[in-house]
């Protein structure tokens, strides 16, 4: 039996930071046929607003360290400003978008990350995806627009990486859907040489990835994204691509852009 | 045929501004039986964060004048920080809350207020409530938690008074439900003497209200709230009360608190 296709698309900061880029992406996204879910990150906007407010954010290996002040900041910026702006823009393009955090309707339950060497503060590791809710919303032709905020079910909001949310939702839905997962960022794909924008690796499987890793040819900042991609692959997600958010509709139509993650 | 009861409760800034007060209210709210909707305002939190960010907000007759900067501020604070905090807290108390702005799933379409003498900026006057959506969510035992942000359907978010949202939703649902509308604030009811907290007017009908108005016995700040209450009355909303957010579950049980708005 042919299962229904769902496109799960994650966009990052660089797409969100520029109004024009975001508009172009949302325009493209609105043309993606069938069921779809958008997950967005935050980008420099949270940092800029944080600076104005005097909130200083620390990072460790590209991951934000979330103290109480930073959690309030990202809840405001991701859950409020960015999420509602995206939803309103999509509504104007006939996409019946509904903005959600992980707390809303108990979409994503997470656990505060256990402190090992680094205390990530209010960082949440996802424990459970509310599959029934997602399927229910999708069956009503709603398009979930998900911000990277989760909760622990005990009243605490948590900050969770957007790529990880996209991956986890892809894994959760893959038993019911043929899932296409798109992890978009500001490059056209995983680059062999970070200084050469055209050095896109067309496909990566676990062994070629391991090989590149062993030769230190994978940029540090790419590792979390690739780890998420390979975890989705292991869970049976049909198609996973890492690439640019530009012209996502064309990418979905011909599927020959970016880096394909395959077995 | 006996229709199902729904309690629509609006809380204002004073309840939100104090963590302890908010917790007590949400605790109380979680015990309200049956279907329910919570609408929240913003309070001084938006002003405080605005101050930190250097955003100056102007008011006219208690209503915020929303320029572009202020709109971003309230979208962040109302739609993000306050809304998600409330949702997470309710989730921890077994209320399956879902936070929504008017843009989400096209819940509330509004029109940018036409400039007469005062330019309210990005202030939205509600045109349409998405009744089907609300009924659908309620039928799934979800509790909508609505922030005072609407949209115009053309991509523009707008700022709308929370009391007005509560009233409009009450009116929209009154044909399907027996609606109890609670407009809560920091007083125990409409006061005859603003300096005497115990001078609660037990009930007001259009003619007693007109009489008090003519004698200038209605405080300026109370007028918008009362106008909303009387508009709900005209639309056939079953019960409307103006009173304190404290112990709302007990208030709903005995219905003898605050000011009853009646025909």
TrEMBL record, chains A, B:
Organism domain of life: Bacteria
A GO biological process held by the record: L-arginine biosynthetic process via ornithine
Pathway recorded for this protein: Amino-acid biosynthesis; L-arginine biosynthesis; N(2)-acetyl-L-ornithine from L-glutamate: step 2/4
Site entry: Transition state stabilizer: 10, 225
Domain named Aspartate/glutamate/uridylate kinase: residues: 8-243
Enzyme Commission number: 2.7.2.8
Enzymatic reactions: N-acetyl-L-glutamate + ATP = N-acetyl-L-glutamyl 5-phosphate + ADP
InterPro entries found in the cross-reference section: AceGlu_kinase-like_sf, AcgluKinase_fam, ArgB, Asp/Glu/Uridylate_kinase
Key words, A-Z: Amino-acid biosynthesis, Arginine biosynthesis, ATP-binding, Cytoplasm, Kinase, Nucleotide-binding, Transferase
Pfam annotation, one family: AA_kinase
Residues bound to substrate: 42-43, 64, 159
Primary enzyme class: transferase
Location relative to the cell: Cytoplasm
Function: Catalyzes the ATP-dependent phosphorylation of N-acetyl-L-glutamate.
Record protein name field: Acetylglutamate kinase
């Amino acid at each position: 039996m042919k299962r229904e296709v769902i496109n799960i698309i994650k966009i990052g900061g660089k797409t969100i930071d520029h109004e024009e880029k975001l508009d172009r992406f949302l325009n493209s996204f609105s043309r993606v046929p069938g069921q779809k879910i958008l997950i967005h990150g935050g980008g420099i906007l949270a940092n800029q607003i944080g600076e104005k407010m005097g909130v200083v954010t620390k990072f460790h290996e590209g991951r934000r360290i979330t103290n109480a002040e930073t959690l309030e900041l990202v809840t405001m910026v991701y859950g409020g400003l960015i999420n509602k702006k995206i939803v309103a823009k999509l509504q104007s393009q006939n996409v019946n978008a509904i903005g959600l955090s992980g707390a809303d309707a108990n979409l994503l339950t997470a656990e505060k990350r256990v402190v090992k060497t680094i205390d990530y503060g209010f960082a949440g590791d996802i424990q459970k995806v509310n599959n029934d809710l997602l399927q229910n919303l999708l069956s009503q032709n709603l398009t979930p627009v998900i911000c990277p905020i989760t909760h622990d079910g005990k009243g605490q909001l948590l900050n969770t990486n957007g790529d990880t949310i996209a991956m986890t939702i892809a894994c959760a839905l893959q038993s019911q859907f043929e899932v296409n997962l798109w992890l978009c960022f500001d490059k056209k794909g995983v680059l062999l040489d970070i200084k050469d924008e055209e050095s896109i690796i067309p496909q990566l499987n676990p062994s070629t990835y391991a090989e590149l890793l062993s030769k230190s040819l994978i940029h540090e900042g790419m590792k979390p994204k690739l780890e998420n991609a390979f975890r989705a692959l292991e869970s049976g997600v049909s198609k996973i691509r890492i690439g640019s958010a530009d012209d996502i509709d064309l990418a979905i139509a011909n599927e020959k852009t970016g880096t394909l993650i395959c077995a």
